[in-house]
Amino acid sequence: MADALETMRAFVESYPNANILGDLAIDYTDSVPNCGGLFPSGLVEVSRKTDITGAVTVQNQYNFALYTVMAKSPDEDAGATFNASWLMGFQEWVQEQSILGLAPAFGDDPRKERITAQNGALYAAEDEGTAIYAIRISVTFERHYERTR
Predict the structure, then answer these.
(1) Residues facing residue 63 across a β-bridge
(2) Rounded CA gap, 16 and 121, in Å?
(3) What pTM was computed for the model?
(4) Ramachandran angles phi, psi of 74, nearest 5°
């Protein structure tokens, strides 16, 4: 998972507007505006198939949460609009990178991989003028294992 985590961090940081995230932390985000944290939630085995030779194909999924802290004054529309546009832009960019084959590969067949960023939403808002937004990022990929016996 460590390599996958660093790969995902580098991918998120390659977003053209990632400067708003500051130094992207792992499992942590500060409470000041313009910082972010990437929170991994591990590997999920989606399916497992064995062929007649005994080779096994496993479909896996990595899941992450991206938290961003942005400026947002209570009852102020311009900041909220900017923040929502950033979230939507990031999600669209991830989709585009995945479709065009420009996203990083995690499995054995990059053509079958899919990275999605979805459910971007306000997570919490503070009276001090900050808001935390969360985006769910999922990577679906296959790994192939050959039996050697």
Answers:
(1) 138
(2) 20
(3) 0.89
(4) -55, 140
